[in-house]
Structure formats: C-alpha cells, structure tokens
Amino acid sequence: MGVHGGPFWAGVVSGGGVYTHYDNYAVYTFTGSGDFTVRRGAQGGITADVLVVAGGGGGGSDYGGGGGAGGMIVTSSLSVSSGTYTATVGAGGSGGASQLERGDNGVNSSIFSLTAIGGGGGGNEGGEGQAGLAGGSGGGASYGDAAGTASSGQGNAGGVGIAAPNYNSGGGGGAGAVGAAADTSQGGDGGVGLSNVYRTGAAVFYAGGGGGGGSHNSGDPSGNGGNGGGAAGSPSRNVVGPSGTANTGGGGGGAYGNDGSSPGGGTGGSGIVVIRLGAL
Q1: Under 8 Å between Cβ of 56 and 252
Q2: What is the pTM of this model?
Q3: pLDDT tens digits, 205-248
Q4: Which among 147, 150, 153, 122 is positioned nearest to 136, based on CA atoms?
Q5: Which among 205, 204, 194, 208 has a CA at the least distance from the CA of 252?
Q6: CB-based contacts of 86: which residues, under 8 Å, 6+ apart?
C-alpha cells in the first residue's frame, strides 16, 4: 500500500501504487496490479498523465528470435471521473523452454480506458514455428520465416532471420524502432524503446526489443537488446537467453542456435503503470 495524496492531492485520490512526488507533480507507480481511487465526485473528476507498458514477449528457443517489447501507451491530460479503477500490470512472457518452442507473448497492462498489448514471442527453429508472434511489438523470426507484427500505435514489428549458411535470428521490435534483421555477422538487435519522464521527471527508456540468437553453424554472436530493458540474445549455445528488465516491458533474448538441444530463450520483462497528477 502506497502513501496517499501528498500536499495537493490528500483526500482527492488514493492508490495501491507507490506514491512519490517531484516539482508540482504527484505520481502513483504500479509495478504490480492494484486499485486507484478518485474521490472528487461532483466536482468533475481529475486529469492525469498516464504511462502504460505491457509485459515483453519471451525469446524463442534454439535459433530463437528476440521477444518483442510490450506495447507502450503515453497520454497526457486524460480526463478521469470519480470512482475506483484497477491498474493491471502484465507479466513478461516465458521464453521457449525446449528446442521446439517459441517464446510466449507478454501479458497486457491496463488502467482507465487504456490497454497496452503484450509483446510478441520470438520464433524458433521448428516445432511451433519459425515466425515471430504478433504483439504490442512483434517478436523476431528465426531463420527463414516472417517476423511478428505490432499493434497500431504501441510498437514496431520484429526483424527477420537469415538462412544458410549463417542461420542467425531477428531481433524483437521496440516501441521506438523495428527489430533489426539478422545479417551475415550476427543476430538482429532488438528495436530501441522510447523514453518517458512521468515517473521521476528524468527520461527513462521503456519497451526495448530482445536480441535475436546467433548460431553455432557460423559462430556469429547474438544481437544486442534494445535500450528500454530489452535483453541481448544468448551469448553461447549452452546458456539460457537473458531476461528483459523488470517493469520496462523489455523483450527476452533469443536462444543461440544449437541443433539438437536448447536451454531456452529469455523471459520478457514485466510492465508498469504510472499515473502523474499536477497541482490542483
């Protein structure tokens, strides 16, 4: 349970998130789900600046594409009527856990009328399919198939992989850019996220895509994670892909190509909800 109100907002709002303040702003940050209550009643409600980021997608196993970032929504001066609202913070999607699994999509985050869509899981070499999954931002593809598409206004598509002789996988999309396609030197980098100042007044990046896996066939390295919590692809064939950073919506890293077994892709980072209120 957070501290309620602050000098300007005591008795007007309360919430289960963590209360902070800077300059003339009161801020409620939800890193897990909880309620937010507006008590102004007949005086017509409030206006709020709101950031909503969904959970990032998991990286694919064996020759894994990077997980797509969770969808990111930023709005200012949103009118909010009196009442109690539930802030839902989405978990990151699990990475592909065996040789034949794609990463799972992240879970949606929401508050008021705003719903950010979970990031798309990264593709893998076979089994469940090489294509990246659609999401807030799309998952990167394994070699030889399509990348995941993005939700309109919330992110960008993933990157495609490259087939013989390199077999590198594409990066997951980020809120600020598409995931990079793999090339003949490495797996694709995750797309960069976007910065936002609502939480602290300082710019913080959210919703970066996960890096695509490299390959033992060529010895090429995996791609880098996108700025905004995206994880790099796995550094070697026997290492699980890194996870996206918690409460950024970053995509999980794709697993390195290994032929025959895979320790799995990385889990996506969980999302976040931030509500910023100005002086009354």
Answers
A1: yes
A2: 0.95
A3: 999 999 999 998 889 999 999 999 999 999 998 899 999 999 99
A4: 150
A5: 208
A6: 33, 34, 35, 36, 110, 111
